[in-house]
Design a protein that fits this description.
By secondary structure, the chain is of the alpha+beta class.
């Protein structure tokens, strides 16, 4: 017998290795409540979380729009991919070999790119360590980085040549892969290729799994421009989804239950190697929604410190970053403010806390740590202001002695939006008192301005998303779903074959449920347990969203029957079968009554229908149906 892996084996291995909470939390900020995780549905507009993820069952379900399924269903929907595309992509990521007939040469491109980028990083490091008199090595030493740091972060140098790297790598990697990886650029008029990076200090950028996916490159020339040249985006590198240093910082973020977001590559490296291990940085871009979602997977309490430069650009980056974080957490609770720092919200696993680190001399983190040491920097981390305090203090710093009424009014306009964000009225009044005292104005005047500028909350709206309209099931269809869910009860003493025999004579009327019933009849002969049946059903219905939603509903419904004794389980089956039969009789009676009313003008037809109706009633009384 052949031991060659089957497509079904691949799907099963992928699902065994993917955790649905981990996968979904990359796209949705989840909050654990009871046994499930909850968040705002990514598939429709909502302000109150109705999107549920069940870690035990490895399924998701939105109770707002009805979307549901397993981890592969989520990836299909969120990435707009077919089932086969998701399976091939995940198999490639997880290193699972596809059957020959399903193998896709294009899927190996990403791996070839990562291999080429790693080879380039190793070569750059080799260049750096083979000449310790070079400018790059001296520059790193001035920053306090020794060989151990160079090895850990794979720092290196590109030679002062446009052909050095690709000549080296072409021995094992083809030129098309080098171009896709952003390591070479095609010359004008198709006259060959040149290295993208020349005479630069090379800083590899790692993804969460530790793959080298790009480079940041600092010029070594005195007046070289640009100062930093970054890899262009590619199949393996999307800067809005990569945080520099996250691969090295993951465990420290979990341990500290917080993350410090910095601006530069060397800020992050300097912090990490000096004991501030939970530092990360955005790769030449502003903080994005995807960055926040990545962070939220590692810090349970969502404690986020912003440590940007103290100049004008740095303050703007702080404001933009804070706005992005607040938007990402919209609908999942309030951003922690002064009043919330000392109450039970500390027990709320997904409450978000934003603080701003502001060392007094305005130095960037790398410079400060080199001059004062990491222990001193940690003191400023511990005493970092909450965002609301930072924002108000930034406005009040502009206060001058003997300000004119117009100057005071200008500062009031700047501070009012921050005061309006404070949820607790008592705390807001305290801040109003502080600001009024500082600006030497009346509290009542400031409160009046606040009330006038308090804008009504704008609804989240996207014209691309359709309104949710779901047809409700009748009593019979609900009973049919209940019966089908009994196939998915774990540890039930009634096996698949027994259920098949019991339900053989039951008349299913809903077209979709008939498809599910027939598929279960077929599969129950080939599978051995509920887990295998569930996985196979999701695979069978991979391209049919409505059927996948039904399977998800059946899994949730099965919980209602899992704790029943054998006797009660059988009673539940009989009760649902009776509901189906009773509903059928009542519907037939309604139909006859309707026809009788229509036939009043035809006495003979009316008498015939009346006789049929009497016979139905007699049968009902004989059988005892309700």
């Amino acid at each position: 017998m052949s031991n060659e892996i089957t497509y079904k084996d691949v799907v099963s291995q992928i699902k065994d290795r993917l955790d649905i909470v981990d996968v979904i939390s990359r796209r949705v900020i989840l909050k654990k409540t009871g046994g499930n995780y909850w968040g705002l549905c990514p598939f429709h507009n909502e302000k109150t979380p109705s999107f549920s993820v069940n870690a035990q069952k490895q399924i998701f379900k939105c109770f707002g729009c009805g979307e549901g399924g397993d981890v592969l269903s989520f990836l299909m929907k969120i990435n707009n991919q077919s089932f086969n595309e998701v399976v091939k992509e995940q198999a490639e990521i997880l290193g699972i070999e596809m059957p020959k007939q399903y193998s896709d040469a294009n899927q190996s491109i990403k791996q070839q790119m990562c291999d080429a980028l790693l080879a380039a990083a190793d070569y750059y490091t080799e260049n750096l360590l083979s000449d310790k008199n070079c400018e790059a090595y001296k520059y790193l030493q001035k920053r306090g980085f020794g060989d151990d740091v160079i090895y850990k972060y794979k720092l290196g140098v590109s030679k002062d040549s446009y052909e050095d790297l690709h000549r080296k790598l072409l021995k094992k990697h083809n030129i098309e892969i080098l171009e896709k990886s952003g390591l070479v650029i095609k010359r004008d008029r198709d006259r060959g290729y040149v290295d993208r990076f020349k005479n630069r200090l090379m800083i590899p950028i790692f993804d969460e799994k530790g793959n080298v996916v790009a480079f940041g490159a600092r010029t070594l020339e005195k007046d070289g421009t640009p100062k930093y040249l970054n890899s262009s985006e590619s199949l393996v590198y999307n800067k809005s989804q990569i945080l520099y240093g996250l691969y090295q910082a993951k465990e420290a973020i979990k341990k500290e239950d917080s993350v410090i977001i910095m601006e530069g590559y060397f800020d992050v490296i300097s912090a990490q190697v000096n004991g501030v291990g939970n530092a990360v940085g955005a790769c030449g871009t502003a903080l994005t929604d995807n960055h926040v979602k990545m962070i939220s997977r590692y810090s349970a309490s969502r404690r986020i410190f912003l440590a940007f430069d103290s100049d004008g650009a740095g303050r703007k980056a702080t404001e933009r970053g804070a706005a992005t974080i607040k938007e990402a957490f919209e609908g999942l609770g309030n951003i922690k403010q002064y009043d919330e720092s000392f109450n039970t919200l500390n027990n709320d696993r997904y409450a978000c806390e934003i603080r701003v680190i502001t060392p007094p001399d305005g130095k960037d983190p790398d410079e400060f740590i080199r001059e004062h040491g990491s222990e001193e920097y940690k003191k400023y981390v511990e005493s970092a202001q909450l965002l609301i305090d930072f924002q108000i203090n930034q406005v009040l710093k502009n206060k001058k002695p003997q300000m004119s009424p117009l100057e005071k009014n200008d500062l009031v306009k700047q501070v009012v939006p921050y005061l309006n964000e404070i949820n607790n009225s008592i705390v807001r009044d305290e801040y109003i008192k502080i600001v009024a005292t500082q600006l030497e104005i009346e509290e009542s005047s400031l409160k009046k301005v606040l009330s006038l500028q308090s804008a009504p909350e704008k609804p989240r709206y996207s014209p691309q998303k359709k309104p949710i309209v779901k047809k409700s099931l009748n009593i019979s269809e609900k009973a049919q779903k209940n019966l089908l869910s009994m196939y998915l009860v774990n540890e039930s003493s009634i096996n698949f074959q027994t259920l098949n025999n019991i339900l053989k004579e039951v008349e299913f009327t809903n077209d979709k449920l008939i498809i599910v019933k027939n598929t279960i009849d077929k599969l129950s002969q080939a599978v051995n347990n509920v887990k295998e049946l569930t996985e196979t059903l999701y695979t069978e219905f991979a391209e049919d969203n409505e059927l996948k939603e039904i399977i998800t509903d059946l899994i949730y419904l099965s919980d209602s029957f899992k704790s029943l004794s054998d006797k009660d389980f059988k009673i539940a089956i009989e009760e649902n079968i009776d509901r189906i039969k009773t509903f059928k009789i009542k519907e037939a009676q309604k139909q006859l009554q309707s026809e009788y009313k229509k036939a009043n003008d035809d006495e003979l037809q009316a008498v015939q229908i009346q006789m049929q109706l009497r016979e139905k009633i007699k049968n009902k009384l004989r059988t005892g149906d309700n």
